[in-house]
Structures are given as C-alpha cells and as structure tokens.
Amino acid sequence: MSAATPHAATTRFALARLIGGHICLHACMAGMRMAAPLLALREGYSPLAVGVLLALFALTQVFLALPAGRYADRHGLRRPVAFSVVAATLGAGMAVVWPVFPVLCASALLTGGATGGAAIALQRHVGRAARDATELKQVFSWLSIGPATSNFLGPFAAGLLIDHAGVWLGAQAGDLLGYRAAFLLLALLPLLTWWWVRRTPELPPVLAASAAGPRRAWDLLREPMMRRLLLVNWFLSSCWDVHTFVVPVLGHERGYSASVIGTLLGGFAIAAAAVRLTLPWLAQHLREWVVISAAMLLTALLFGVYPFMPTAWSMGLCSVLLGLVLGSVQPMIMSTLHQITPSDRHGEALGLRLMSLNGSSVLMPMLFGSIGAVVGVSVVFWTVGAVVGLGARSAWKLRSPALTHPA
Description:
Elements: H1 4-7, H2 12-42, H3 47-75, H4 78-97, H5 101-129, H6 133-168, H7 176-197, H8 224-253, H9 258-282, H10 288-305, H11 312-327, H12 329-340, H13 346-375, H14 377-390, H15 392-396
Helix pairs in contact: 2-3, 2-4, 2-5, 2-6, 2-7, 3-5, 3-13, 4-5, 4-7, 5-13, 6-7, 6-9, 6-12, 8-9, 8-12, 8-13, 8-14, 9-11, 10-11, 10-12, 10-14, 13-14
C-alpha cells in the first residue's frame, strides 16, 4: 500500500466530513445520556436506578466492540457507520413515542452501541490514513474534537428543549412534552452522520499477516505496553464517567435546572474541544507519556476540590479545567495504540480498548450510584480522584523509545 493512497483520505475536507459525522452521532448519545437520567429522576427513580441507566449506554459496547472492530477490519468505514446510524435513530426515536424507564433503558443500549461501533470504524480509518507518529497525534487530535463538541451540543440542545419546548407548545417548562421534543431532535442527528460520511472513499484493505493458527484479540494483551495502555485508559475513562454521573445528580440535589446542568456538562466538553484544537500544532513537541501522566495528577487534584464548589459558576470553572486536562489525553492514547499494534489489527485493538473501557463503565455507574445513595456523591469524586492520582505511575511507564508507527 503506497503512502500516497491512504494520505488522500487525510485531506482537510475529507477529515472535516468525518468529524462532522462523528459529532452528529455522538451528540445523539450524549444528549440521551443527559436527558434520560433527568427524566428518570423527575419520575422519582433513585440515584442507583440512574446509575443502572447510565451503565446501559456502555453495556452493548462490551459485547459488540470486538466484533465491531473485526467487522471494520474486513469492511472498512461506510458499512459499519450505516448500521450505527440506523441503531441510534431507532433508539432515540423509541424514547419519543414511549418516554418510560424501560424504553429509556433500551434507548441507552441502542444509542450507546451505535456510537461505539461508529467510533471504531472512524478511528481505524483515520489511523490508517496517517503517515507517521506526528501525523497520528494530529489527526486524532482533530478527530477527537468531534466527541468533545458533541458532548456540549447534545446535552445543551436537549436541556434547552426540555426547559422551553413545553412552553413554546402551550404546556409547562420541564414537562414530558419537552423531553419528547429533545428525544426527537436527538433521533434526527444520526441521519446527518450518514450524509457526511457516505461519500468518503474507502482505503485499500490490509492483508493479514500469515499465522500458524487463528488469531485472538487476547493475544494483543501479551504485550506489556498494551496492558499498561489499557489500564491507564481505564483510569482516565472512569473520570469521564464519574463527571457525567455526579454533575446531574449534584445539580439536581442543589435545585439547578436542566439548562444549567447541561451547561455545566457543556462547559467541560467545550474545554476538551478547545485544548484539542491546539494539539495538532503542538503534536511534534509533545510526548504521549508526559501528557498522560500530567493529566492524571491534575485530574486527581481537581476531583478533590470539585465537591466544595458552592455555586454553579464555581462548578462550571472546575468543569472547564477538567475538560482542558482530560481533553488532551485521548489523542495521545490513540496515537500510542496505533503505534504498538499491527496495521491489519487496528480495528481489533480499538475494539479491545472499547470493550475494556465499557466493561468497567457498565459496573462503575452502578457502583457510583450505590456509593452516592449511602454516603453521598462527593465521596465518589474523592475516591476516583485518589485512584487516578495513584495510577499516574503506570502512565509514566508508557515512555518507550521503541515506539514506531507501523508500516
């Protein structure tokens, strides 16, 4: 495979289309992840039930991540994205018609699984198109702007509709009609994803290396660097999960409106997107392990002080700082992953990463809910912060002069 052929897919316009598609599909899931728990709380469900609901956004990805990665290795970009668009539209659309807790659970399964499958296909495509380690960090920095932006757009748009659509339609603010309007908007967003992605040219397939026997994803875990990378990624992913869980619960306890809660989550997302805008120009001067180690230590510090913030403005400041810190991590993780795995197994490695993350994401929100129900949500922040701070040593060990971008 020549370098010129895949590099054609990294032109600014082609990459912008992929980012636009990623934003629309991920915004559907991000908005559902904010609106569905708020509706559950409005209907009187406990923090534990909300934790279960949030866990379902990750459950489908636990079982589908590896098959989705292998499917992307075989079929490329467009076919996996098409299936994801159908699943996400169906999931959010069901909540429009039946906005009850069991259906919200089904919607969480569908939209979460769709987002994971599409993300694997998009990340694999972009990673294969990059020519060297510096370009890997650049393209993943640009691509990672998509989820960061959608984590603002989805919750913010859903929050506005929840608070105001009922008034616009002659009902009351925050009533069920507002939630239905929010779910309808979220159901339409994935259709724009297909409009953005459908004309993207596929990259030439990669021939699998000959092997004595069948390959298994667990073989990738024999490499110490892969095990260490997955552990660090799990630590940092837990920080995103706890922020997504604790902020709506804490905001609800303090009497904040859906718009304020959505804005708090949105401020985090905007900050994450902003720092990623700078990374492509800094990529040549950054070392993955330095960025990741520093991010873990700063996150531990911010998690320690967050529960003491007395107002929405001070909580918003902490959310913005957390977004800046955590937003810098994913491009570094993805760059490292693509450098330590064979080209013909990128999709499989991405699936393994997603499976490990979402396996914990299924359990962690339920654990967060249990702890929050017993001793308060502040303890969740402090516990996760302490674990992440102690885990910074593993990130420091990711430094290796042997990392090279596979041909």
